[in-house]
Write a structure and sequence with these properties.
Low-confidence stretches: none
Order of helices and strands: EEEHEEEEHHEHEHEHEHEHEHEHE
Helix content: 25-40%
Structural class: alpha/beta
CATH superfamily of the largest domain: Medium-chain alcohol dehydrogenases, catalytic domain
Strand content: 25-35%
Number of strands: 15
Number of domains: 2
Length: 336
């Protein structure tokens, strides 16, 4: 089969080649991949800054895929040939709390990912794709949508009328705006781009703050919430900006720490954290059971993934470059 292979770190070392088509073993599905979508994790793996000691070479990258089951191994009962499925990043995390070794079984590193014509997914890990989405749309769900869903519903437990702050307009953030709005929350979004803020408000956000124009953006958030701060804040930036996130969150509020776009370390001021009694939870995607619940919700609610651009399979490198420049929503690669 044709596959993109990462032979060493750096985008120049991601090359289109051929590798044997895998065969499903007991309990496994052979999936003809229809589309994959890129996350910051995928770029960080190629760049060699995401757990580089765990990356095998060559590696078929990209964790998030949607496609059709074309063959099954012995004993498979959850899916049949012809079913459309999603991959799930943590392939062995099915329900409950994560085990200590979940990262050892992630698609796109160290397990082979979906940037190929076919991939293997165990039936226990696969999730039925929403009926109302194309492969391109469904491929955006496994990390971006699911991280937003878990942050809002399982962790944040938001309810109608709650306030949520979403940082940026990338994949996770756009899904968070759409999902939180559908759940009845009031969403504030931050961005350095006024056009993106306007687009985010068309998706349901009630207010936007340009953090370039307002470097102390947390002060603007407090003004928008009558001085209280938001109930839940989704932090995708990381770095020292976490201190501003604490200031923008209400007393006894919650922060979902999702990303590290501005840095993997932070100089955290403890006294505001202590006095505001803020809860910070690291979110590294979620169990498959939450994915099942989210896709059921998506089947009942008219939320369409926001895709910035779909690239053909041969232009995978250009897709990575687009992600590096920044995207409004998701960058997708169509395999077939």
């Amino acid at each position: 089969m044709k596959a993109w292979l990462l032979n060493n770190f750096g985008l120049d070392n991601l090359v289109l080649g051929e590798t044997p088509t895998p065969q499903p073993k007991a309990g496994e599905l052979l999936v003809k991949v229809g589309a994959v979508s890129l996350n910051f994790r995928d770029k960080a793996i190629v760049d060699g800054i995401y757990e580089p000691h765990m990356v095998p070479k060559p590696l078929i990258p990209v964790s998030d895929a949607a496609g059709t089951v074309v063959a099954v191994g012995e004993g498979v009962s959850r899916f049949s040939v012809g079913d459309r499925v999603n991959s799930h990043l943590y392939s062995r995390w099915i329900d409950g709390a994560p085990g200590p070794d979940e990262p050892d079984y992630c698609f796109g590193s160290p397990l082979p990912g979906g940037l190929a014509e076919y991939m293997i997914i165990h039936e226990d890990s696969a999730v039925r794709a929403p009926d109302n989405m194309s492969d391109e749309e469904a491929s955006t769900l496994p990390i971006a949508a699911l991280t937003a869903w878990y942050s809002l519903v399982d962790y944040g437990q938001i309810k109608a009328g709650d306030s949520v702050l979403v940082q940026g307009t990338g994949g996770v953030s756009i899904f968070a705006i759409q999902l939180a709005t559908a759940l009845g929350a009031n969403v504030i979004v931050t961005s350095s781009n006024d056009a993106n803020l306007e687009a985010a408000m068309k998706l349901g956000a009630v207010a936007g703050v340009n953090y370039r124009a307002h470097p102390n953006w947390e002060e603007q958030v407090l003004k928008l919430t009558d001085g209280k701060g938001v109930d839940l804040l989704l932090d995708v930036a990381g770095g020292n900006g976490l201190n501003q996130s604490i200031a923008a969150t209400k007393a006894a509020g919650k922060i979902a720490q999702i990303g590290f776009l501005t840095g993997q370390t932070t100089a955290l001021g403890l006294m505001p954290l202590i006095f505001r009694q803020t809860t910070i939870r690291g979110i590294a995607v979620v169990p498959r059971s939450s994915f099942d619940r989210m896709n059921a919700f998506l089947n009942e609610n008219p939320i369409k993934p926001v895709i910035d651009k779909v690239y053909p399979f041969a232009e995978a490198r250009q897709a990575y470059e687009h992600l590096a420049r920044g995207a409004f929503g998701k960058v997708v690669i169509k395999i077939v």
